[in-house]
Design brief:
The chain is of the alpha/beta class. The chain is 36% helix and 19% strand. Strands 1-2-4-3-5-6-7-8 form an eight-stranded mixed sheet, with helices on both faces.
């Protein structure tokens, strides 16, 4: 059960149900503008392993604000395709199949689904180094891609929420920058964190979970390398300079307990940063229906307020 919930299946179900519901809630009879799709863009390579992203760019003059999206899968599985492929047939509600990045592009944001190196082959900090490299690549190529490099958000689900949160709380002093595009910043202007782990030390309390997911990512048990867990935890990097956060979490989540988001939110506020916490009563690690529609509606309002205000 832990594997299925924390892996990609529930995360995908949550996104597909959420998007399908939002399409119903916001559809009109007007023709939708065209969205330009770019897939399999290589932004870096390590020892022959390419890391890529898929992008949906809005119609219109631009330059467009950017939402960089990160998939879940316990840092061990999942793919950028999870957020850039059409919803399956059983999620087609007659309004057209939409991936997350296309749905974002329809609303004026350049949606980018970023692939990153996976554990256990690639230990932390490879994942956050890739996330930061992708942001810097987009800034380096902003003019060619018609993007606004001053308006970049990070959004992620579960393990992807963890990476989005690290993007919002760390700067170059954290040592996660990697080696590419050093003339450009990896910092983001805001973060939408869907049920991401914020304090990885909490998993040391359950030996089976620590062994199955933390050790492949971090390479050690907490008891032997507590500083590794601390360095990988967004909550440990919070400061007044952290980006504004919207954190969304189900209160019945047993995979990433809501205490992760509660503590992250509280620490952001205490540090003088801005944070909103939306808890969804009785929901676990991903959900559908009206609560999902409401959650993404809140996320869109947050993104518009943070990225579109001049």
């Amino acid at each position: 059960m832990f594997r299925n919930c924390f892996g990609v299946t529930l995360m995908l179900r949550f996104v597909w149900v959420l998007l399908a519901g939002l399409l119903i809630a916001t559809s009109t009879n007007a023709a939708e503008p065209s969205v330009r799709i770019q897939k399999d863009v290589v932004y870096a390579a390590f020892d022959g392993e390419k890391v890529q992203f898929d992008m949906a760019i809005p119609a219109g003059a631009g330059p467009h604000p950017v939402v960089v999206c990160f998939h879940g899968g316990a840092w061990k599985s999942g793919s950028r395709k999870d957020l850039s492929k059409p919803s399956p047939a059983d999620m087609d509600f007659g309004t057209g199949k939409k991936s997350l990045i296309e749905w974002l592009a329809d609303r004026g944001f350049a949606g980018v689904s970023v692939g990153y190196r996976l554990a256990p082959k690639n230990k932390f900090p490879a994942q956050i180094e890739d996330a930061k490299t992708a942001v810097r690549y987009l800034r380096a190529n902003a003019k060619a891609l018609n993007l606004d490099p001053t308006r970049v958000a990070a959004l992620g689900f579960s393990a992807g929420g963890h990476l989005a949160a690290l993007l919002g709380t760390t700067d170059s002093a954290a040592g996660f920058e990697g080696t590419l595009y050093h003339d450009y910043s990896s910092q983001v202007q805001c973060v939408v964190d869907f049920f991401g782990p914020a304090d990885l030390s909490l998993y040391s309390e359950t030996e089976g979970i620590e062994k199955a997911f933390m050790v492949p990512l971090l390479g050690a048990r907490y008891s032997s390398q507590p500083n590794v867990y601390k360095k990988a935890s967004p909550i440990e990097h919070v400061s007044k300079e952290s980006a504004p956060f919207l954190i969304i979490h189900g209160t019945a989540d047993v995979i990433v307990p809501v205490i992760h988001s509660e503590r992250l939110h509280d620490k952001l506020i205490a540090a003088g940063a801005r944070s909103e916490l939306l808890t969804v009563s009785g929901k676990g690690h991903g959900w559908g229906g009206e609560p999902a529609i409401d959650a993404m509606g809140t996320a869109i309002k947050f993104l518009k307020a943070e990225l579109k205000a001049k």
